[in-house]
User: Fold this.
Amino acid sequence: MHRSFEAPCSSVSSESIQDTDQEMQIVEELHAARVGKSVDLPGELMNMEIDLEDDVHSSSGIPSNNTSDRKLLIVIDTNILMNHLKFVRILKTTEVPGFDKLVLIIPWVVMQELDRMKEGKLLKHAQHKAIPAVHFINESLRNQDRKLWGQSIQLASQKHYGLSDENNDDRVLKCCLQHQELFPCSFVILCTDDRNLRNKGLISGVKSLSKEELSAELLHLSLNTDVCHQPCIPKQQLKAETTPLKESYEEESINSGLAILLESIVSDLEKSLGTGLSSILETEMKIAFGNLWMEILYLKPPWTLLHLLQCFKKHWLAVFGLVMEKNLLLTIESLYKNLCKANKAVDFTTVKFLLQDSRSLLHAFSTRSNYDGILPQTFAQVNKLLQTFAEVKTKLKPNSSENTVTKKQEGTSLMKSHNQEITVFSSSHLPQPSRHQEIWSILENVWITIYQNSTDVFQRLGSNSALTTSNIASFEEAFIYLQKLMAAVRDILEGIQRILAPNSNYQDVETLYNFLIKYEVNKNVRFTAQELYDCVSQTEYREKLTIGCHQLVEMEYTMQQCNASVYMEAKNRGWCEDMLNYRI
Assistant:
């Protein structure tokens, strides 16, 4: 059944789904509430009950840790816990060069504000963000986590420098100043997205950074372990003598830097992909159900990216299954699974799959509509994140235990041509895991090349060219290239499916290997069919190959649709019959 397609103007996406706007709304409304005293507490601080279920606190006054230790104490404001809880979780596990420990400080007044929002007494629309923040603090305090301290009510009740307890900004600032006095050998940073509070902190001598600024500085510190060049730490705060850091500590710091960078990528992906998918969901639901769409909708806005993916899964058969290839549902499920995984612990492989699946999903929907111009913007943002992700390896220092040859060959792509430098070395010189990574990177680059070329073809052959200007000059050239791409995808799929078949053996790798030889894909990094077989026999790479197979099936279907849509025009133009024999 074919439905006529007109993309109605998206309203939910512009009002409720812009995560950045929601974050700023929380910051601004919380600031306004503080200024307007609508979050002021009746009577003394003692009279406010904080619902942390049990009165389990890391300290009743001054924390018991040695005050001579060099700690990095980061005071977390309410808006950071509300909008960037995932970042805060990663921050708590971060190792920073030049410091004995990183500790998060939660001011008493922040816990009070979260409690009021959790109960729906303040910023009711943000209640869903306050609840997980309260649970995070409670869990850390219950477990007596030494990397998170709560400011005690005793400290919060003390007068300090004449700061007024009538203003919650001043209460947060007082917490910073108190910890500067209590821990003179440590360094205190206030993390808040409230610009005015940052101004107050800077005036008062407290280093004050937004989430993005703090993330950038910590990443810089983690990737540049020379403590003499720490940008957020004054020179007088550093030790008189600088000793080289141990390799294990450098590795911890690099891992911390990687986690911070990956969290930032996932956070940006959630915002950009959420915007794109919300537009798709609303548009397709309106087409399917008209004015009743909001009543039928599985989960009502405001949506998180996880909510959107749940809606796509729930409504797939009735809404999307009629207009999109059913195998695309596998991409939705993969996205959902990996996003849940990333919310618990972010890692390199998970983020890579998230980005690749996001691009595949957007690419598939781009053949249907540009969705009021939102999809091209989202597509460009995801591509930018993929570029950032590709640069991660060059920013992070390689493991010092790795062979020098491995360092040279890491990140080699299909487009590079350092033939002499790379082929001089025998594969026997390379550690086996690194050899497998090298081979897999070649397969990844095949996918990227096909994807990029197919995007150019679709843009030239499509009725709208909203994404970008195609690099292909003519319609005829694009049509010819489409036939070649379809043939290549068929060959690759045949090779992969033979490898993934039950009881596959060495001979089953030959189809894929012959394709790579035919197109000189591995001319930069030489490997044998046996090495390819050894690589794809590993569980890790077999799982990746399965996901790649699903993505190629989706790509093939999209190509078939595109080919069918332009077939009659190609035939009317009198192009040779040989070319049309590619048609499926």
